[in-house]
Design brief:
Number of helices of chain A: 14
Structural class of chain B: mainly alpha
Largest sheet of chain A: none
Number of domains of chain A: 2
Number of domains of chain B: 1
Order of helices and strands of chain A: HHHHHHHHHHHHHH
CATH class of the largest domain in chain A: Mainly Alpha
Shape of chain A: globular
Order of helices and strands of chain B: HHHEEHHHHHHHHHHHH
Oligomer: heterodimer
CATH topology of chain B: MetI-like fold
Number of strands of chain B: 2
CATH superfamily of chain B: MetI-like
Helix content of chain A: over 70%
Chain lengths: ~290, ~325
């Protein structure tokens, strides 16, 4: 029953850019695809299913398939301080995404519609920062963050997540700006509109779907981030992934409640991704693939 | 020229944007200095932010790597030149961890690209419920990695109550301690599960940009399905697969969550990769100097590989649509 509802929502959400073709009644390859899809989806399904079990039914062999669903585990999770962790995640994810857009959209504009010499170098630079392994900078970051008193402070993560997502955002937004016909800007300026006005009234409306897609990608990456979070936060500023790890230390043997906590950690981003699946490709490929 | 209407419009628009950009670039020589800076203006905040947050810490890493500095021995900070690097080069654990890192990246990227290709080919066909299938297939990529690794470690791979061993017991295969016996492989399996959807999405985008008339012409010429695939589809997809491999590798260099959750790098260092090993050295061993030196060595390796990767990527980004 759980799968059935998930699939139904998924079907509603999905309106992919898949080529419109006449849907055949039956295809053996369709059956293969369905089997593969159910196989890939199974661990997620199993996680959600386990989260509705009583502990006694969760870790059994053979697995318990028939049971009375219960919300006890979610109750337990909410009683164990998931609230602050959830808020931290929302704050770090939301604020870093806003800052990324505030910095990234103008940068992408400068790199696409009105480029000057050497802007290619800036593009290279943005991309190259994604190739810098994070471990190479984590030590000084730790030292700097603790020296300025931001250890276990959510602002440290806001800044780092901004840096983590900014290159992707610049690349992705640039690809959206490049699709705006340059003549539009020129026409507007011939009409005597100031640059700011023509950007605001002509360009931004055109790229706003792109901005939304960029924001969603940033949200996904920031929400799922773990390395910075586990090294730079402890109790006060812990995000959902860190909370989940802390949970294991105490409840490692209790699979049902762990599954409930894991589901809560994964759900927001899963929903975002389902809604944004048409835009995923572009963000994940730094805008290289439409 | 029988691209579907919207890809054609897209390509047209793109070509136009490209052209306008070229003209602009040519004019730049005539742009006054003040105007140049005005145009660069919107770029500067992002640029400065990135330089401060990523490059400055790296300079510190370089500096730390020349110190003998242990966090638990206060006052132990002193300049030791290249000693840390010599220690790293002579650290046999470091090299076996480096090897793990390479195995992990290459293994995960190649296997998930292969599965991604197969799934993309399936999804490129019309069948009942394709949208739902696609949604199900991308889900592993979206699941928070920490949560995904946790689920794999417990409910799936657990030796006594994991569902995999139960399934195998049905066909008479005895209980296997998956993570205990094959730690690195199991981490890779979990990562392949997470990364296959990524590859699938990129390759699917490639398939859907494929000009159908070529395939149809090939069919008319009487080419078999496999021949068509090898001689038309695969060459067209090459760029997309390459891009997927390179981007996958860029993301996977930083793999940490799965190892942290599933094996803690163990037993011993059997399943540790460089990020995890450096993390252990720095935050559990408190040896900042050596950990920093390792970080620098990793960056040197990455630069060598990235240099090659960047070139490949930029070929993709300049996006010459060979079809158009």
């Amino acid at each position: 029953m759980t799968t059935a509802t998930t699939e139904k929502t998924a079907a509603k959400i999905d309106s992919g850019p898949v080529r419109k073709k006449k849907t055949k009644k039956f295809s053996p390859w369709g059956v293969v695809a369905w089997i593969a899809a159910l196989g890939f989806f199974f661990p997620v399904f199993w996680m959600v299913l386990t989260s509705f079990k009583q502990e006694g039914d969760a870790a059994t062999s053979p697995p318990t398939l028939f049971f009375t669903p219960t919300l006890d585990q979610y109750d337990a999770v909410f009683n164990q301080g998931i609230g602050p962790a959830m808020l931290n995640s929302v704050f770090a994810t939301g604020l870093s995404t806003i800052i990324v857009l505030l910095l990234g959209v103008p940068a992408a504009f400068a790199l696409s519609l009105r480029p000057v010499r050497r802007t290619q170098d800036a593009l290279f630079f943005f991309m190259s920062t994604k190739m810098l392994p994070i471990v190479a900078v984590i030590l000084p970051l730790y030292v700097i963050v603790s020296n300025v008193g931001l250890l276990d402070n959510i602002w440290a993560l806001v800044i780092l997540y901004t840096a983590m997502n900014l290159p992707i955002a610049v690349w992705m937004m640039r690809s959206f700006f490049l699709e705006v016909p340059g003549e539009l800007l020129e026409a507007a300026s011939l009409d005597g509109a100031s640059l700011w006005r023509s950007v605001r009234e002509v360009i931004l409306p055109l790229v706003s779907p792109g901005i939304a897609a960029t924001a969603l990608i940033c949200v996904i990456f920031a929400w799922n981030e773990f390395f910075f979070a586990v090294n730079l936060t402890a109790v006060n500023a812990q995000t959902m992934p860190v909370y989940l790890v802390g949970f294991i230390a105490g409840e490692g043997q209790y699979w049902a409640v762990l599954s409930a906590a894991a589901t809560m950690a994964a759900l927001p981003v899963m929903l975002c991704g389902w809604f944004a699946q048409n835009k995923l490709v572009r963000g994940l490929s730094f805008g290289a693939i439409k | 020229m029988t691209l579907t209407a919207d890809t054609e419009a897209d390509a047209g628009q793109n070509a136009m944007a490209e052209r306008v950009r070229k003209i602009r670039e040519a004019q730049d020589l005539g742009v006054s200095r003040a105007e140049g800076w005005r145009r660069r203006g919107p770029l500067l905040p992002a640029l400065i932010f990135m330089i401060v947050v990523t490059q400055v810490p790296f300079l510190f890493t370089l500096y730390y790597s020349t110190l003998s500095w242990n966090l638990v021995r206060p006052g132990s900070r002193q300049f030791v030149g290249l000693d840390n690097y010599i220690a790293v080069v002579n650290d046999s654990q470091f090299w076996s961890v480096a090897l793990n890192t390479v195995i992990l990246i290459i293994g995960v990227v190649l296997v998930s690209a292969f599965f991604g290709l197969l799934l993309a080919l399936l999804l490129d066909r019309a069948f009942f419920g394709r949208g739902v299938v696609r949604t199900l297939l991308i889900t592993p990529f979206l699941v928070t990695p920490v949560a995904a690794a946790l689920i794999w470690k417990t409910t799936i791979l657990d030796p006594t109550n994991g569902i995999l061993n139960w399934l195998l017991s049905l066909v008479g295969v005895g209980p296997v301690d998956w993570i205990g016996q094959f730690p690195l492989t199991m981490v890779m399996v979990e990562l392949i599960w997470q990364w296959t959807p990524f590859m699938m999405l990129l390759i699917l985008a490639g398939l859907q940009s494929m000009p159908r008339d070529q395939l149809e012409a090939g069919q008319v010429d009487g080419a078999g399905a496999f021949q068509l695939f090898r001689e038309l589809t695969l060459p067209h997809l090459r760029r997309f697969i390459e891009l997927g491999v390179v981007l996958g590798a860029i993301y996977l260099v930083n793999t940490f969550d799965a190892i942290y959750m599933m094996t803690q790098g163990g037993p011993g260092i059997a399943s540790a990769n460089l990020p995890f090993y450096i993390y252990q050295r720095a935050f559990l061993g408190f040896d900042m100097g050596q950990a920093a030196a390792m970080g620098v060595v990793v960056v040197i390796f990455t630069i060598v590989i990235a240099n090659f990767a960047l070139r490949l990527i930029f070929k993709s980004f300049s996006g010459k649509e060979e079809a158009a």
